[in-house]
Amino acid sequence: MAKSFCLLLCFLVLFQGSLGRQQPSRQQKECSISRLNAQRPSRTIRSEAGVTEVFDHNSQDLRCAGVAFVRYTIEPNGLLLPSYVNAPQLMYFVQGRGLQGIMITGCAETFQSFQESQQGQQEQEQQGQQGERQQGQQGEQQEGQQGQQGQQGQQFRGDQHQKIRDLEEGDVMVVPVGTGHFIFNNGGRRLVVVSVLDTSNDDNQLDVQPRRFYLAGNPQNEFQQQGQQEQQEQEGQQGREQKGSEGQQQQQEGEGNNIFSGFDAERLAEAFNVDVRIIRKLQGQNDKRGNIVRVEGGLQAVLPPRRQQQQQDPLYASGNGYEETICSMKLRQNIGDPRRADVYTPGGGHRTSVTGYDLPILRNTVRLSAHKGQLNQNAVLLPYYNVNAHSIIYVIRGSARIQVVQQNGQNVFNEEVQQGQVLVVPQNFASLIKARDSGFEYVAFKTHENAMINTLAGNLSLLRAMPLQVISSAFQVSDNQARQLKHNRQESVIAAQGSSRSQY
């Protein structure tokens, strides 16, 4: 009996240990692809201070990869309204510079304007003294109310908020699932940002339909087809008409398109402890500005000097320890600087990656990665395939001829891709990229936190790892020809135009 109990206990320990080692997986999608397509935006939404361009997430290619793709163009002093989505995001800053706020519940407001708070406190004390002289003695209850209001005014004078990150061209930014965020263009030219939403990630407990929940304004839903949106608006209007007996005030609820607009205004006023007229603004009623709005005079926020912010300085505000882990985790990595290249070929180009080894949040939560590549004039990205991930390629500048081959040897893509287009290359499909005269600059998002490639030519290729006899027998070539296949290309990933070959 005791022996059986011990065996059962050991089994349970091993079972629990194996569960603990399991990594979250992506939801697998059906990928029956006979033809790939280089995509352009299928929908354009214009706002007061920018443009949102949405690529068709229902296309066969993006459905196979299990992602959605969006491009934002934000004018100077433009603010992409705060929102959160049902999937983790990986953003790449294509052009310009800006500020991004990531709001994580429970984290301390570590960016604080103490001087303004002290000035506000002094002003509030002066106002309180004047009020006492004017009102006189009106009872202990009214004095208590004035004291409470004075404390609230002192607390919220000045400003304090969570960390705001200064981002620039070449930066990759991670936004975890359900995390509020906003972007502001504080530069002198347009800010262009592309974003991949991993709707197949296990952190998305809904279906694979991307959903953006705006916290402000009355923006259009970029992930909803026009017909579906009109149908939803009609259903919402019918529902409001059915509630007509509750008065005109309640009929106005839901006229906005942010997360607050569906709540009863008076209940929200009670929850925020503010006047109901403020709640009307919160709900975005009659707001026609769209999802990118203009901030007159620029964004006034608490920011350290630019040099200091680029350093990894600790967070100084006191807290409960939570902000030392989740709140201070690294969310940003620059892959646009050629000096940080992982692969470099003189005259050919370079490539820089960000993976779960660089940003732990990619490994532990988001499970995405990316690399930024640049091919010089007529340079070649040697034949390769993605071992463990789909690849979503966005063309930043220039053009290239890309060929993609599937498992039965059929060519599923053989076209030129140009600036602004998106191409999905499924896992294990082999690719060959040759830049045109203008060169080719791109960013590739990968659906694995530590995405790997295998090359089919070059000094790190599969052929290089084979014995000569295997190559000659498999391809029915002579030993000398097998040596040429194995050794003539000395570069590993990128080959420059007219690069030299070994003599065999």
Description:
- The protein is α+β, with helices and mostly antiparallel strands and 504 residues long.
- Helix content is 26%, strand content 29%.
- It has twelve helices and 25 strands.
- It has helices at residues 2-21, 60-65, 114-135, 140-155, 226-242, 248-251, 265-272, 276-282, 306-310, 360-366, 468-475, 479-487; strands at residues 43-47, 50-54, 68-74, 78-85, 89-95, 97-103, 111-112, 160-161, 164-168, 171-175, 180-184, 191-197, 212-214, 292-294, 332-334, 343-345, 349-354, 369-375, 380-386, 391-405, 411-418, 422-425, 430-446, 453-455, 494-495.
- Strands 16, 17, 18, 19, 20, 21, 22, 23, 24 and 25 form a ten-stranded antiparallel sheet that branches. The chain has a seven-stranded antiparallel sheet with strand order 1-2-3-12-5-10-15, covered by helices on one side. Strands 4, 6, 9, 11, 13 and 14 form a six-stranded antiparallel sheet that branches.
- A hairpin with a 3-residue loop joins strand 16 (343-345) and strand 17.
- Helix 11 (468-475) packs across helix 12.
- Mean pLDDT is 81; it is low at 7-22, 116-120, 137-156, 243-254 and 308-324.
